[in-house]
Amino acid sequence: MAKVKNYNQEPATKADLEALRADFKTLETKHDQSFDALEKKTDKIAMAWVKHEQKNDRQFEEIKNLILSSKSEILNAVDASAGLARNVDRLQMMQGQHLKNHDETLKNHEIRVKKLETASIQTPAGPLIGKIRMF
Prior knowledge:
mainly alpha
């Protein structure tokens, strides 16, 4: 960059103006080069961003498809589990009823045994009380 002599003391000469014009031209060239370099970097960043966005879009679609394909499998597994739970409930109710029936049978067992021991057997010839041997 050229130095201007006697700044603010004497009027500028034609040579001073030419030197100033050359300095501006040099600065303009440097500015254009810096701007071009910045523009190239910005373009690289923009392309990287676009590639990144495309990759994200692909990954999103893959995950979405995976979820959608797994959804029916999950629902089928839930339905199967619910069916098994219903079967277990039904079996528990049947088991409970079966135990209740056994309980009643056991409670009434003594009464039935006593009735059988004291019952008289009716035959056409009459009762056989005392004639039956008990073991």
